[in-house]
Amino acid sequence: MGGFGGSCRVAAVLVFTAWIALTAVNRLVRPVPNGCVMTYMYPTYIPISTPRNVSSDRYGIFLYHEGWKQIDFDEHVRNLNGVPVLFVPGNGGSYKQVRSLAAESFRAYQNGRLEPTFYREASSAFLVNELEGFSIPSRYGRMLDWFAVDLEGEHSAMDGRILEEHTEYVVYAIHRILDLYKESHVARSKGRVQSSDNLPSSVILVGHSMGGFVARAALVHPGLRKSAVDTVLTLSSPHQYPPIALQPSLGQFFSHVNEEWRNGYKTGLSRTGSAKLLNVVVVSVAGGIHDYQVRSKLASLDGIVPSTHGFMVGSSSMKNVWLSMDHQSILWCNQLVVQVAHTLLSMVDPLNGRPFLSPEKRVFVFAKMLQSAVPQSLSWVTPVSGVKSSNLITSGSKDASALQRKDSLSCPPSVQWTSDGLEKDLHIQLNSVTVLAMDGKRRWLDIKKLGSNCRGHFVFVTNLAPCSGVRIHLWPEKDHSSEQKEIPASKNIVEVTSKMVQIPAGPAPKQVEPGSQTEQPPPTAFLLLSPEEMSGFRFMTISVAPRPTISGRPPPAASMAVGQFFNPEEGTSAFTAARIIGSSYIPEEDHPLALNLSFSVSLGLLPVILSLRTAGCGVKPTGDQLEAEKNKLCKLRCFPPVALAWDPVSGLHIIPNIYSETLVVDSSPAFWDSHQGNERTTVLILADPHCSYEVSLRVSLSAAASRFFLLYSSQILGFMIAVMFFGLMRQSSAWEHDSSVPSILSAIESNLRLPRAFMFLCFIPVLLFLAFLVFTRGENPPFGTFLFITIMCYIVANGFTILLILSSKLIIYVAAILHVFIKRRWQSWEDGTQSTIIHNFLNLSFPFQSLKQLVLVYYFSHMPSMRTQPFAASFRSITQKKDLYKSLGDNIILLSENKQDGLEQLLPMDDSPTSVKSFTDSQLEVFDCRHGIMILHLLATLMFAPSLVAWLQRIGMGQNFPWFVDSVLCVGTIMHGIFGSPPNVSCISFKLPGRGGRDVGLSFLYLVAGYYSFVSSMALAPYSSLYALAIIGFICFASRIIETRGTTCYSGFFMNENGCAGGIIMSIECPEEVRQLIDPSASTSASDHVQTPRDLLLDAANPLSILG
């Protein structure tokens, strides 16, 4: 390596990479509490008979039945009369994973709809004309029949061919299920005339993980019947890219399916002229920050499904769920499963027992039942403008005041209570109002007076139940016009209680004894009103129910409600990357209830630890009052803060009782398809205005390392292949210019040098890629973040590559020492026994050529008696005569001219060309070349390993072969390993225009392959680097064939019977003049070709000379 500086550079990269890897692994292996409630069921799986064909021999279809009683399977199938739903399991999943969804759907249908107070929150205005007269059905029209496909637990996330076969069988299963209902209808009729109008014409698809993508792939399969599937719901499914983008056929299949979906919503591309998928609705549910396998970015439908036909919602922002969960918990988490079950039942039209035909109505139901209204309630926050939701939720053309007068904002009739029972009215003169008990009073606030001085926004936080505990009304200003007098006063009063957003709360404190004062409980709901929403109104009333109205359950330990008119700009703080590293600020007392923190860097990339310490609560310290007593008094007066964190990609994440918490959102910044502004994260803290807090921020290094490793692991592997290509490029360039060939470790270290090498191999590919995005696709990712993350990935890739090289060298050296030791012992024993069998075994015991060369190096390094003078003289004679006979033809040039071309000027060699090398140095150079080839192929093997594991699972099952493209890539990769080492392929050399007529050799191909792999990794397609490797392999194979059939002269060394080096191995194609010049004692006849199979060492010039 390059001296002390190079060693320090390698050590720094290694330490940084090891720290990231160890910290990330330590964090990722920690158990993650998700807060989910377990789902229980009594499952029965009924097999569905299928005709004999190839697919049914491997896979199967099952019908789920909930109940502990034994049933007749055939009778149950004949009585099918529900809405068919097909569950598709994911990678390595089982058909039995349908049990939680199916069991809760059965119970939901039996028990009816949820209570209105349970799911009713923050009603949004749906302004699409077709939906003005539509509402969610008040009863369920028909139950759901849950089917599941048994895919034998195959690993579909590892191979594109397996994914394609699963898609074909899902298409078959859809047709079989629809035919089954027809067969059941015929069996029930038994000759009687019955209407078949209620027979299902489509199947709802529900897929988990890769099963969700299989469900989407089935809809664009050419064999699927028209309108057989109109609704798809996916749970933690990747849609944008494969989770493990290492296998070429997998990436190609994803690209093909997504392109078909993009074209499916465009008119004029099908035979009928209408869009193929115009009636299809897709909803994707992401697991959030705790789902390490499928991130929210992968589960997004942006660019695939129009926002009018689907959307993505995170489980942490889903109504009545508010939890992030891991990849498997999303199937059994009761909070989510219950909500999904009621959502699917709500899509059934009670009139005909089928899902609504209109895609707008189905999207309406999904949005109403799954999407939370918190982002819409926070629309006054500037950074939230990028939050995407269904186009059905919009502000439209009608003004806010007209929408607020709709009856949909009133409390349900079952929980109404009149204001006659209120004791008296209170008129609030301050801009904040506090409720400390359920006192049965109504508080009046003058909107015009209290909302002056730019304090036009109103926020209300409470732990009282909306409607049953507290109600909020807006009262119009008195108008003496004649039109106003004709309208009753009650018609002008608008209730906005149901706009209150219910949020998850932490555990409420317990009373030590009846009547004792306790800590303030955490808030459970909040309300935000903008000036536009209060326009036209003069007064606001906050009515608190008296305590006796709460029946059937004890009152809370302490009742609380705080409201405030505030100016959003007063509580806004912006944090840059430098300020996030370590900062703190102290909001004064009487601060805005809503503190808006804006982070310029996504908390999905740079998580922060947010700590809130109570600094004061209006209580003056007396004497030697301890800090602990002060905090205790403040907790009795101030409610626990609540944080709401969100960004445009991951959605909302709510953290109750946030005194010290690590804030992380599941965003994926710095990808090539990221948009400007999407890397920002907004955190809204609801803190009691009666208290002051010291807010401190610091970066969580462990969380940042785990997020970096989680987000960019596939890119790092692609960069590792690019690093190896660049290292082989430097080795090949040294070989071509007759310089000392550096080891692969030295080559990588040289490529890390600043500024020339690093700029040429890292900065230039990034700039070229960004320029390509801007001019071809119009994409403009954030330049600074994208460049920083790419450089980080490249450095970490170098670190992992160096670590792999050092580990492999250690293993090879240990194996070489053991081989030498064992062979010495066996040779001494062989000389005494003269065993022919053992003699042949020793010759074939070590077929790996690079390791044989290392053994030779070990011999020459540790046995001085073997460095014979005749051998050194012979080698010097050869190396001195190579350049003298260049005029005999280009094919016999083994050493190129000592001239620097443009590539060597950009990446200069450490050593000057040399004309005399010892045999040990020559063999060590060959080993260094082959060591680099071995590391490159080890990385390629790691990329093919998941697919290999998946296919080994299918041995003996009569499966089809992998895709032809994958097989060709494997063959090309193997050819590169056989014929591409060492880099002395003279037939590859060619001339490029504009280079002064200089030859371009294998080093240029490695440089282009490195650039291609680098760009492919940035494009989230690291598997594309295998194409470059296979192409170079085929080129090397073709060049070797040309060389063996031409007049190329090959030379090499061999060991004689005494173990000493001596003699030249020459191919019979060598011209007689060259043979005699290289070795005057050599005969010109082909029979004098010397080749001793027993002691033949590797011919460093060409492996085909040995094979021939």
TrEMBL record:
<keyword id="KW-0256">Endoplasmic reticulum</keyword>
<feature type="signal peptide">
    <location>
        <begin position="1"/>
        <end position="23"/>
    </location>
</feature>
<dbReference type="GO" id="GO:0005789">
    <property type="term" value="C:endoplasmic reticulum membrane"/>
</dbReference>
<feature type="transmembrane region" description="Helical">
    <location>
        <begin position="933"/>
        <end position="955"/>
    </location>
</feature>
<keyword id="KW-1133">Transmembrane helix</keyword>
<feature type="transmembrane region" description="Helical">
    <location>
        <begin position="757"/>
        <end position="775"/>
    </location>
</feature>
<dbReference type="InterPro" id="IPR029058">
    <property type="entry name" value="AB_hydrolase_fold"/>
</dbReference>
<dbReference type="InterPro" id="IPR012908">
    <property type="entry name" value="PGAP1-ab_dom-like"/>
</dbReference>
<dbReference type="GO" id="GO:0016788">
    <property type="term" value="F:hydrolase activity, acting on ester bonds"/>
</dbReference>
<feature type="transmembrane region" description="Helical">
    <location>
        <begin position="1026"/>
        <end position="1042"/>
    </location>
</feature>
<keyword id="KW-0732">Signal</keyword>
<protein>
    <recommendedName>
        <fullName>GPI inositol-deacylase</fullName>
        <ecNumber>3.1.-.-</ecNumber>
    </recommendedName>
</protein>
<keyword id="KW-0653">Protein transport</keyword>
<comment type="function">
    <text>Involved in inositol deacylation of GPI-anchored proteins which plays important roles in the quality control and ER-associated degradation of GPI-anchored proteins.</text>
</comment>
<comment type="similarity">
    <text>Belongs to the GPI inositol-deacylase family.</text>
</comment>
<feature type="domain" description="GPI inositol-deacylase PGAP1-like alpha/beta">
    <location>
        <begin position="80"/>
        <end position="347"/>
    </location>
</feature>
<dbReference type="Pfam" id="PF07819">
    <property type="entry name" value="PGAP1"/>
</dbReference>
<dbReference type="GO" id="GO:0015031">
    <property type="term" value="P:protein transport"/>
</dbReference>
<keyword id="KW-0813">Transport</keyword>
<keyword id="KW-0472">Membrane</keyword>
<feature type="transmembrane region" description="Helical">
    <location>
        <begin position="708"/>
        <end position="729"/>
    </location>
</feature>
<keyword id="KW-0812">Transmembrane</keyword>
<keyword id="KW-0378">Hydrolase</keyword>
<feature type="transmembrane region" description="Helical">
    <location>
        <begin position="787"/>
        <end position="818"/>
    </location>
</feature>
